[in-house]
Amino acid sequence: MWLRLKENHGNQVQEIEAFLAQQNLSFEKMDLAKEILYRLDLGSKSLEDLDFPASVDVLPGENPYPLVSLEAKPERTRIVCGAHEIGPQKMTLIAGPCAVETPAQIQASAALVAKAGGHILRGGVFKPRTSPYAFQGLGAEGYPLLAQAARAHGLLSVSEVMDVEQIPQAAEYIDILQIGSRNMQNYSLLKALSKVQKPVLLKRGSAATLEEFLLSAEYILSGGNESVILCERGIRTFSDHQRHTFDVAIIPELKARTHLPVFADPSHATGKASMVLPMAKAALAAGADGIMVEAHPAPEHALSDAAQSLTGEGLHKLGHELFALEGFLQS
Q1: Buried-most residue among 34, 43, 77, 278 (CB within 10 A)?
Q2: What's the pLDDT tens digit per position in 159-188?
Q3: Can you state the angle between helices 142-152 and 103-115, rounded to 10 degrees?
């Protein structure tokens, strides 16, 4: 079981640790940014036998992810990023190209996102590609291009970091740092981003269970970064009519288990532009706090993921219909 000490005051720490010693209870202590957690081994004792000090919250059971658990924090997390708040009650729309290709292309993309009512511009600069011969991105020079385009159109920015060494430059320019599907269980990267005071968008691995997904988020929170966004982007199954199977059912299950915002990426899940809008609607109806899609000013010329990229017209239609659906769901 777990104990949570919300206020890190020395006298309260001494009080609870003296109590634990008096009760002969062994414990592991976790010093976090805003609280302290104690993992207890009750041994032969039962919870009813113990009268814990009022300064701690008792979290019964062996929850493997106590920090991300809704049980531990019943209020939903709201992440303030610039002038935008990510969380419940207001859908966040992220859109943009798979990759930053040129200054003109990313500026045109940002204009499309802003026109569609989007909040955050996405764009990869380091691209983990299955083929070593596919376009790998512009590299670090793409970060300022993405940031400049976002600012010019009143948007925030999000981009993936693939390696610990990429974090400093990404954090200098980008508002939200993304951990891609392939790196969901890259524990060195998770630990490094737990020390960065920037929001982290964590994508689910293509073969990850719900518990593995939440435990990856737990790594980030346990290091002190509480601004984590979970994103479903499809899992690999025997289905052959889309790139991955878009696991819409995980959205309400995540909402039942964690206080963290839950997003969905139907572009990467389906791999088909024609499926993005209906799947985005399904995700929003299932309870998603945000939708992340790919769009390009000229998808037929995109250097990566052309088949799943929306046109400007398609993105505008998506924004219009999603915001209308959001209003209906909240009415």
Answers
A1: 77
A2: 999 999 999 999 999 999 999 999 999 999
A3: 30
